Every structure is written in C-alpha cells, then in structure tokens.
Hints:
By secondary structure, this protein is α/β, with parallel strands linked by helices. A hairpin with a 6-residue loop joins strand 7 and strand 8. Helix 6 packs across helix 7. The chain is elongated. This is Benzylsuccinate CoA-transferase BbsF subunit. GO terms for molecular function: succinyl-CoA:(R)-benzylsuccinate CoA-transferase activity.
Amino acid sequence: MTKGIFEGLKVADFTWAAAGPIATKQLADNGATVVKIESFRHPDSIRLGGPFIDDKPGINRSGFFADFHSSKLGIGVDMNHAEALEIIRPLIEWADIVAESFRPGIMKKWGLDYDSLRKINPRIIMLSSSLYGADGPWSQHPGYGAQGAALAGIQHMTGWPDMPPAVPKGAYSDSVSPRYALAALTAALIHREKTGEGQYVEMSQIEATAQLVAPQLLDLQVTGTEAQRAGNFKPGAILHGVYPCAGEERWITLECEDETQWEALAALLNDAEGLNAARAQGRDALDSRVAQLTAPVDAFELMKACRAAGVPAGVAYKGSDLLEDPILEARDHFWPLHHEEMGTLKYNGPAYRHNKTPAKLRSASPRLGEHTDQVLTEILGFTADDLASFRDRGLLQ
C-alpha cells in the first residue's frame, strides 16, 4: 500500500478552535498519527458550536468540529489536574511534534513550554499559534478570527463604499494561518532531518493574514493610495460582479476583462445595444442592466453557456451545491466517513494531490475521549491497572 507523505510522524495535538486543528488535520489526513488532547471539563470550544447534525446539540455532534478532525485520535485528560504530566510526559517522549493554539502562557502553566518539552524530548518540534503572537504588548489579549481579520487590514477593504466595513464569513484569520503553519512545520521537519535538532515554531495569526494585503501595502508605500471598500469593483475590468438569477438565492459571478469576452456575453444575453448603452453610462447602470437580464435565467445554464463562449462565470454555490458538485465528485474531494453519533458524512479531503504519497482520510472525527484507552495502552504502554488508577484520581475526563 502507498503510504501518506507524513506516515510515521507522531503529533501531540493540544490545538483548539480552528486555526490549529486545520493545520494538524493536514498532517493526520496525510498519514501522521495525531493524538488530540482535551477533556469534558475543557472540551474544544467548537464542539459546542453548530451546525449540529439533525439540529440536535451535543458534544460529539458538531459539524464544525468534525470537519477539522478527520483521521485523528482523541483522548480525554484533565490538563489542570496536578498529576496530568504522569500521562502527558510519555506522550511528549513519543511525539515528533507538539502543536498548541492557546493564549500564550497556558502551556507554560502546565509545564509544557518549549524549554520544558525539549528537556523531555530534545528532538521535539513545537508549534505555537495564537492571534497576536507569543510576545509583544498584546500577546495576552483575548481574541478570535474576526478580530484577526480586522487587525490585519482585511475588513477595512471589505464591503461597499457607502457602508461600514463588512466582516468576512467566519473566523477569517483562522482559515489563513494554518497554510503558513503547515509550511513552517514541514520546514522544521526538513531541518531536523538534516541536523537532528528540533525547534520552536511560533506564529501570529494576524501576521499570517497580513500577507494577503501585501499588494495593497505596496501600493500605499509607492503611490500613497490607501485601499478602500469598493464592493465588487475590479480596476481594469469591463464587468465584474455578482448578479441574481432565477430561483431562491441564486446568483452568478460574471467577469469580462476584454472586448472579446464582453461581446460574447452581450450576445449570450441577447442585448448588445442595451448593454453597450448602459456601459456608456457607468458601472452602476451597467450592473443594473446585467442584473435585469440575468434575473430570469437559470444560473447553472448561464454558467455553462458563458464557459462555452469563453466568458469567466461561476454560480455562487450553496453548501448543498458543493456536496453535489460533479467536478468535486469526479476529483474525489469529499470522503464519506462513518461517525458513531452522526452517521456517515462527507468530509473535506486535501485540496492538493501527491501522486506518489496520496492522502487518505482514515476515520471520522473522534468522539471526546474515544481513543483514551487505546492510546494509553497501545501507544504509551500503560496497563489496565494504570488506567484504573488514573480514573480513580480524576486524570481521565
């Protein structure tokens, strides 16, 4: 059988919410053994947030949590217990990577900061990801992805010129920083292969997200022009926007970068004269005219016709469209995995393909503490009597 590219890699995963778990999911789906540590006293916060399967809340029923934790093992250990290191120290000795995404200082409180970890395991690589970074004047401030996007300059540029800044859907910085975390971890692994040395990898979600506005920052420094909210406007494009189509909440994105594309779209909409007249009046008039013409048309049929004519177009997919999309299905993007409480659901696979070391999603997200006994006995070598003692003392939660 072909092995995943991270086959044999061992990860102690203390991450929570989204930014950290998305990064460790990439390791797990590509062959690494990833052990997630949490407890019923302090579960991963997104277990408590929907959407829940069948709209029934439950600690093991969150689709949000599920999609970030495929292929992982889950154990329940009370990290605030005075004797937690009795279990965690062997886990650190076993691991190649320790990943965490708490506010700076939490791991040190548990005796698991990098200086302590490398005394236990000199080859350990530690990843710490937080909103503001491990040091600096704001390192101890609480915050989530919405604040991260705002402080990285994203929200100031998002929205319409005559309206307040808009918040992009979801915790935006949580979706950006894992891509940098994975690259940084891979670089640290390569360095360790060459030198035998582990190292501490520390990142700020705000700094990672600020990479996305590099062109705007360069423009500001060179020309003095500060990027502003501009709706769907794209400089240099003849047409660039999202337009209504037939049906409930059906929209299509259309773009014309040159006259050839413009003429093709005008022919498809059968209104060259009206469209050219609206174009001469300005962007608002043009957007209004295009919207009138697309409103009664089926979005998928229009997208198909536009693509055949060489006009860039895409339906604004709903989640249900993604799950039924024939292109994603043909590329085996979604993996059906069975979960004891939620049943069989489709999980996102990696967005990339390794032809020699293909990814394989091996299991659905773990129920809280699902693999505690398995990990402690099969991986860490504890006995049944040890487990009974841990439970009697309240270490396993």
